[in-house]
Specification:
It is built from eight helices and no strands. By secondary structure, the protein is an all-alpha fold.
């Protein structure tokens, strides 16, 4: 959530959004995960994955529930409406787990016929720039962390794919981001993520800088 806040705040500065709201919402957007923390990969430091013991639909429903749980907690502690709205909207109507559980369910179902809606967040889609920023920052952070890119180019491709997917799928249709805003945000995300994950260019087996030219000692 701290990293999502860093990503979101940088993007908000570039597109004229409320940076303080983005920072506060980023820190609390996943508060619902505290009720079942070990079902979420960022909390599985010991390598235990509880989803291996569950069917894909049950896993998806547990993860989807963190939005509802987060809203209930935030309402209990009297969070402002602007933050409540972002908690509700930060996944929009996307497939849970970048579509992983949906694909697993299709593989495990004999005819591949399943209820796709059961693997999607209920929405609503982002209604403001700030909600869209949190959605995109959260999505690109998760994708980069999962992919562990080996070069700046790989990282840029991941960020571009995630932002384009959200645009093409209609998740950004109900907020007032422009294509120019989206391009600026993409650049901000890449800058921050490169500073955190430090992808390295893969060099040849022997580094030319360590070679001693012939005739020299």
């Amino acid at each position: 959530s701290l990293l999502v806040g860093n990503l979101g705040e940088r993007a908000a500065e570039l597109v004229g959004a409320d940076t303080l709201l983005v920072r506060v919402a980023a820190l609390h957007h996943d508060v619902g995960k505290v009720l079942r923390p070990y079902f979420f990969v960022e909390n599985q430091a010991n390598g235990d994955n509880y989803h291996q013991q569950l069917d894909p639909l049950t896993s998806a429903q547990i993860i989807i529930s963190h939005v509802k749980d987060g809203l209930e907690l935030a309402q209990k502690y009297h969070f402002p409406d602007a933050v409540l709205n972002i908690i509700a909207q930060h996944h929009g109507t996307t497939r849970v787990g970048l579509g992983y559980f949906y694909q697993q369910a299709r593989k495990e179902t004999e005819k591949g016929e399943i209820d796709e809606a059961a693997f999607r967040y209920p929405g609503p889609r982002p209604q403001s720039k700030e909600a869209a920023i949190i959605m995109l920052a959260d999505s690109v952070e998760a994708a980069v962390r999962a992919s562990n890119p080996s070069s700046p180019g790989d990282m840029e491709r991941i960020v571009r794919k995630i932002t384009n997917d959200r645009l093409v799928s209609g998740e950004l249709d109900e907020c007032d981001l422009t294509l120019r805003d989206l391009a600026a945000m993409r650049g901000a995300f890449i800058d921050v993520l490169q500073g955190v994950f430090h992808p390295r260019i893969q060099y040849a087996e022997r580094d030319s800088l360590t070679r001693i030219p012939q005739g020299q000692t």
